[in-house]
């Protein structure tokens, strides 16, 4: 079940909200846990066992680590228990996500013919695994108190708004909200607005441009002209942003409806002037997770290790997104530019370049990276990028670029460009905003949200194309 489906919008969500607010406070968490597991089971009921196993693993290791700390067990034993807990989490993730990739890589390198297990990937396993890991590590480091109530920890890991595609919510950020959260009319209304904005991003922009990107990337690379290849790359660049940020907006909005406050996950990444800045703005919850739980433990910014640490982090970032070599190369691609920018900064290389040139450099790096990300394999990515830059000659090109750039797509590209920049934030910061709850302010807030909702429903009713890119992660 996806947030942008009629089943979710007009049946699941209204019923859940109605029952939730009719229940007494002490029963609401249990109810949310039950409906979250039902939500997850909608696609593949058997995989509920996987998330329950993950919950139990982290609950048990959290308790053990806590008891060891209370009883002043030696650091070596505590650290060993933590490592076993981390391996248990990663082992579950490895089997379902990387086992077949590992075997196929061995086959390719050695010439062996090991039989693949054809393991089906549970939806959102990377997200709830990382949430569980952060919980156990934070208990070990004393940042949070252990959660002795199993169903409350289960709610943290299985809460349906962020369960299958993030953002990665840390226990340290919401543990007090599990027991003590306040639901208000303003918060609920804010959640609805945020959800509708995310729905519009997904259904109106991402789906429309995604259909074009899929058509172009669905052809052999050589059957696209240079112009068509660039259209495909740009459409996918916007698709993945509005798809994922739209989902994050919907997740944040849903959480607000139930009284939870999640941190932001995107901050207009396509206005970035460096690749380093891009990663401060893109998928913020993942970037911070790797910074705190991998980069810093590896040594962080200590001189001599920093470049190796960055490469390790971005290799793992690539692997986190998918079990394929093109994801690893995508991670390395970004990691290398981060290292380059850090070297230039440390050497205090200051070159006065117009901002538009710096922004263009960053955009080019990101777009090429998305081609690596979108391609089915490295060979296709190499050929596609070759077409984009005129290094390969296309043949059997069946369409002109105007077949794809019809008025609807051109309009949507313009809208995507406008929505990728912080216009509203700029207006509020430089012009000011209306007084809260003034009549005109309320009218504007509700009018544009209602328009987006109506248009989104129209798009949903007339299209069967509705993928969520980050579900497979």
Summarize the structure in words.
- It is a multi-pass membrane protein.
- The chain crosses the membrane at residues 6-22, 27-43, 49-68, 80-99, 119-141, 153-172, 227-247, 304-321, 356-373, 401-427, 448-471.
- The protein is mainly α and 473 residues long.
- The protein has two domains: 6-181, no CATH class; 187-472, no CATH class.
- It is 71% helix and 0% strand.
- The protein has 20 helices and no strands.
- The chain has helices spanning 6-22, 25-41, 48-70, 75-110, 125-140, 150-158, 160-163, 171-179, 185-217, 226-257, 275-281, 284-298, 306-321, 325-346, 355-374, 378-388, 401-404, 407-419, 423-430, 439-462.
- The longest helix has 36 residues, at 75-110.
- The model has no long low-confidence stretch (mean pLDDT 91).
Considering the chains and any ligands shown, give keywords for the structure.
20 helices, single chain, 0% strand, mainly alpha, 473 residues
Number of strands: 0
Largest sheet: none
Output the number of helix runs. 20
Tally of separate domains = 2
Gyration radius over CA: 23 Å
Helical proportion, percent range: over 70%
Tell me the series of helices and strands, N- to C-terminal.
Answer: HHHHHHHHHHHHHHHHHHHH
How large is the share of residues in beta strands? under 5%
Distance between the termini: 16 Å
Low-confidence stretches: none
**How does the helix and strand content classify structurally?**
mainly alpha
Structural topology:
Blueprint: H1 6-22, H2 25-41, H3 48-70, H4 75-110, H5 125-140, H6 150-158, H7 160-163, H8 171-179, H9 185-217, H10 226-257, H11 275-281, H12 284-298, H13 306-321, H14 325-346, H15 355-374, H16 378-388, H17 401-404, H18 407-419, H19 423-430, H20 439-462
Helix pairs in contact: 2-6, 3-4, 3-5, 3-6, 4-5, 9-10, 9-18, 9-20, 10-15, 10-16, 12-13, 13-14, 14-15, 15-16
